[in-house]
Amino acid sequence: MMDRNLSREQLLGKINEVSFAVDDILLFLDTHPCSEEALAYYREAAGMRRELMEEYAHCYGPLTVDDAVHDTCGTWKWMTQPFPWQMEGGRCEAMWNYVKRLQYPIKITQPNAKLAQFIMSQYGGPDGEIAASMRYLSQRFSMPNQMTVATLTDIGTEELAHMEMIGTIVHQLTRNLSMEEIEKSGFGPYYTDHTVGIWPQAAGGIPFNACEFQSKGDPITDLFEDLAAEQKARSTYDNILRTVKDIPEIADPIRFLRAREVVHFQRFGEALRSLQEELDAKNFYAFNPSFDMPASCSCPSECGCRR
Ligand SMILES: [Fe+2]
User: Which is higher by pLDDT, 42 or 75?
Assistant: First the structure.
């Protein structure tokens, strides 16, 4: 039974404590899967964590999207909740949780090393998913309103899932290849260095480099880069689709990923527009901290949240 009189800070403190226990016992169970003692401890801690998270969502707002339904005032509270670095003392549920599912199913039955090399570009290439996720998850710290912080966090998180999808496609395309197939397909140089492990590089063999994205600390500049990044990623998926369009088991997940780039472009456009409207309207080119005051909340006035 939860103690209904806990302050927000106390409740977060309890969630942090029990979450650490869950994270730690999870690692122990990965290497000791038959430990009954550890399993019992995990069940107890995970149950307690679930209750505390629901309690927190009920009283103060959601810490995870799964708890966003515990909303009694009819507005979307997910983005109005402070992000971990915005909290006093930084005490918050700050860790990502891995969910064991792909965002779109992938089941490739016919290996093809040549296509794997093309598609690898969307893993570690200049417009690939690693660059996208690192870009958005880095830029979000300098965003001045909750709409842009939430948009960058949520799209950056989704890009991590896309990175996993591309890794899965490349892995499935390079399973069980013979040496003859590797040599004939031109996969030999990659094979020499990485066998069939997944390693971030562009289709032309150039390794992933953090200079492929920018985090400028200027929200307007960064959001323009994000819009361009989504368009470039969509173009790359278009190029890949021309080579795989007749192979549905590859083309379907690639089409899904392409469609997500279009959605991300739209969301970034809306986030940029909201920011420009909230900042000094004459100042379209950049955020200037000397006269652009921090933007306020973008949600309806009755929402009551600040920033
Ligand atoms: Fe994207």
Answer: 42
